[in-house]
C-alpha cells in the first residue's frame, strides 16, 4: 500500500516536472524491536553506497551513529538503540566520491521492552477473564496473548489495566501473557500466567403453576456441584437465595400477581460460584377475581349480563380477564367488567379468570345467575259468557310472575299480575283487544313477545222490536250495535228456520206461517270474530190463520155462520155487510149467529180471527140473502064480479109473487113479477083470505098474510032492458037475494066515457027497483049501470048495453 502510494505520487511528479524525478528516493521502516530498527530504501541511480545515520527525533542534530551499505543493499538494520525512543533515520545515496546524491529520512520509534507478567487474573464470568497488569511508560497499547492446551490462540489488544478477555469458553484453563505495543511494534511476551474461567450460568426456565409459587428448572451444567437461585421481588430491596443440587426448585409462599426477578448460577467443584445468569422476570399467577357482580344490561338490540369484579390486591403488569358461563358464552376484557351476550331464560354459572403472562388464575367463586325470562308463548284467548275473558299463555322457565297487558281498541288499558298462566279480565263485545304478556323474575322482565290481536264478537243489538207487518211477515228493527258488520236475523219455530242477512239494522222476514210462535234472534256478525250467538231470542207469534170453509145457514132472519177454526187460540169475528150496514158476531168457537137481519137484503159474510198477535186475513166472503119482504100494502079491487085486480106495494127482495085468494068456495092465484095481477074466478059475495108468497131471485120464499077480502055482492043477473013507448026504459034483473040494495042507473055513453059531471048532470036516474024511467031526446047509447050498494063501498058493475 505504501508502495502504491509512492508510485502514484511518483507518477504525478513525473508528469508535472522533470526535476522532481530525482527526488523519488525514499526510506522506510521495515520493522522495529526494542533495540533494532530494520529499514529499507529505494535504489538511487548512480549511488555506489548508502549511508544511514540515526538521531533522536528530540535532537535531530545530534547524530548518534551511522552505518554504510553497499550499492546493492537496499535493507539494513540499526542496532543498539534504546527501547521506545523515536529516532530519525536519514539515508544518503553517495556516489563514488562520497558525495550525497540524494537523501531521505524517516522517523521511527523503537519497540518497547518485554513486560512484567500479568499480576492477577480473575474470572469475570464464564467467558471473561479480567487481567490486571502494570502499565508501561510510553506505551499506550498492550497485547494479551491467550492460549490453552486445546490449541486456542488469541491476541487481544488492550489499552489499560484491568483488561477483560472475553469470548472465552466457560470453565476452561487459559495461559495469558502480555506484550507492550507502540508504533514501532510490540515487545516480547511476558511470562505466562494461567487462569480458569468459571461455570456458565444455568439455562433456566421459570413458570408459575399457582398464584403463590414459581418453579425454576434448568439444564444441568457440566462440572456443577450446586446451584444458587436468587429471587428478587420487584420494587422491594430483598433478595432471597436458594441453594440446591437439584436441577429444579419450587419457590412457594409467594404473593400472587407480583413480579419476581430470578437469576441462577452454578458452583464448580473448587467452590467457585459460576457466572450469574441474567435476571428472568416471572410473575406469579394473579389472584382469583372476587366480588363478582352480575346484572342485566339491555340495549336496543340485545341483552347482556354485565359482569364486574375486583382484585383484592395490587398486582404487577397488565391482566386479561376471561369471563365464562357454562352456557358457553364468554367475554374477554382487560378492564374489570365485561358483558356476556345472553338470551332469555338461561341459567348461567359465571366464573371470572384473570390471566397474566404467568397464566390464568384460579376461577372466581361461581355466581349463579338466572337471566330474565323468555316472553310467554302461545297466547290464547278464551271468551266466557259473563263478559269476562281469559287470556292464557304457556309458562316459561324461571319466571316468578307475569304481567298481562290488555289494551282495548278505544285506548283503555287493563293489566293484571299473576303467578299462574292465565288472567281474567273484563271484556266487552264489539271491541278489539291487543294483549301481551311479560314474564318477570329478579333479573327483570322478559322481552316483548307476540301481541295477540283479538276482536270480541259484536254486541247484541238493543231495542229489538219485532212487529208483524202482515200475517206472514215480521219486521224486525234494532239499533245498530258495536262491532257488527252484518246482522243475521233468524226466526225459528219447531219446524222451520227463516234467515235474512243484512248490514242494515232492519230486516223483514216474510213467508212465515200463520199462528206460529217464532223465536227471533238477531245475531250481529263481523268478519274477524264471527257471529255473536249469545243474543237474546225474542218470541213473536204470527197473526192467526184465516178461517176457512165458511158455512152459512139461513133461518128466518138469523144466519148461522160456521167455519173451520185452525188456530190455537183466537177470537173470531163474523162480519155481515149489507145495505143497512154491518152486523157482527164474535166468538172464540167456530160458529156464531147473526140475528135480526132485515128481510130482502144481501149480506157478504166473512170471518176474521183475532189474537194477541194480531188479526188474520178475512176469510173468503160468502153472500147470503135474507127472505124477501112481504109487500106492506095489498089492495084487492074487484074489477068485475069474477075478476079482481090485486095490487101491492113494493116488497124488498122479492122478484115474483104468488098471490092467493082462498075461500072455501074456491081460490084464485096469480104468479107474477109485477106488483099487481088480475085474478079471475072470483066468486061474488065470498070472503077470501088473502095470502102472498114472495120469492127472491134466488128462490127464497116468504109467506105473507093479509086481511081477508070479500068479493062484491053478486050482480043482478038476467038484466033486461026494455024501451017503453015514452022513451023510457025498463030494466029487469033477477034479484040476488042478498042484503045489498040494487041501484040501476042509466047514463049516456058520453057521460059514461067522459066524466062524473056529465054522469051526474046529464043522466042521473037511479032506480032501486027493477025499473028506471028515463027519457032521452036523442038516440043515444045508454048504459045501464047497476050498483050493489055495499055498506062500505060500492062496486060498479058496468054493463054496456048497446042501444
Ligand atoms: C541544527 O543544524 C542546523 C544547520 O546545520 C541549525 O540551523 C540548527 O539550528 C541546529 N539545531 C539545533 C537544535 O542545534
Ligand atoms: C521527524 O521528527 C521531527 C521532529 O518531530 C520532524 O521535524 C521531522 O519532520 C520528522 N521527519 C520525518 C521524515 O517525519
Ligand atoms: C426436580 O428435580 C428432582 C430431582 O432432581 C426430580 O426428581 C424432579 O423430577 C424434578 N422436577 C422437574 C419438574 O423437573
Ligand atoms: C423485568 O422487569 C423489569 C421491570 O418491569 C424490567 O425493567 C426489566 O427489563 C425486565 N427484564 C427482563 C429480562 O425482561
Ligand atoms: C348492543 O349490545 C350488543 C352486544 O351486547 C352490541 O353488539 C351492540 O353493538 C349494542 N348496541 C348498541 C346500540 O349499544
Ligand atoms: C358447551 O360446549 C361444550 C363443548 O363444546 C358442550 O359439551 C356443552 O354441551 C356446551 N354447553 C351448552 C350449554 O351448550
Ligand atoms: C377469550 O380468551 C380465551 C383464552 O383466554 C380464548 O380461548 C377465547 O377464544 C377468547 N374469547 C374471545 C371472544 O376472544
Ligand atoms: C267476572 O268479572 C267480574 C268483575 O271483574 C267479577 O266480579 C266476577 O266474579 C267475574 N266472574 C267470573 C265468573 O269470574
Ligand atoms: C302489576 O304490577 C305492576 C308492577 O308491580 C304494577 O305497576 C301494576 O299496577 C300491577 N297491576 C295490578 C292490576 O295490580
Ligand atoms: C288459571 O289459573 C288458575 C290459578 O290461578 C288455575 O287454577 C287454572 O287452572 C288456570 N286455568 C287455566 C285454563 O290454565
Ligand atoms: C288487529 O287485527 C285487525 C284485523 O285483522 C287489524 O285491522 C289490526 O290492524 C290489527 N292490529 C294490530 C296492532 O295488529
Ligand atoms: C247468512 O250468513 C250465514 C253466515 O254468516 C250463512 O251461513 C247464511 O247462509 C247466510 N244466509 C244468507 C241468506 O245469506
Overall description:
The chain is mainly β. The chain has nine domains: 2-109, Immunoglobulins (Immunoglobulin-like), CATH 2.60.40.10; 120-196, Immunoglobulins (Immunoglobulin-like, Sandwich); 204-283, Immunoglobulin-like, CATH 2.60.40.10; 290-370, Sandwich (Immunoglobulin-like), CATH 2.60.40.10; 377-425 and 440-450, no CATH class; 462-541, Immunoglobulin-like; 548-625, Sandwich (Immunoglobulin-like); 634-710, Immunoglobulin-like (Sandwich); and more. It is 3% helix and 52% strand. It has three helices and 66 strands. The strands form 18 sheets. Strands 24, 25, 27, 28 and 29 form a five-stranded antiparallel β-sheet that branches. Strands 32, 33, 35, 36 and 37 form a five-stranded antiparallel β-sheet that branches. Strands 40, 41, 43, 44 and 45 form a five-stranded antiparallel β-sheet that branches. Strand 3 and strand 4 form a beta hairpin. The radius of gyration is 87 Å and the shape is rod-shaped. It starts with a helix and ends with a strand. Mean pLDDT is 84; it is low at 1-22, 756-769 and 786-803. Bound molecules: 2-acetamido-2-deoxy-beta-D-glucopyranose (12 copies). The site of one 2-acetamido-2-deoxy-beta-D-glucopyranose has 4 residues, from strand 25.
List the main descriptive attributes of the protein structure presented here.
803 residues; Immunoglobulin-like; signal; 3 helices; Fibronectin type-III domain-containing protein; disordered C terminus; five-stranded antiparallel beta sheet; disordered N terminus; mainly beta; Ig-like_fold; 9 domains; rod-shaped
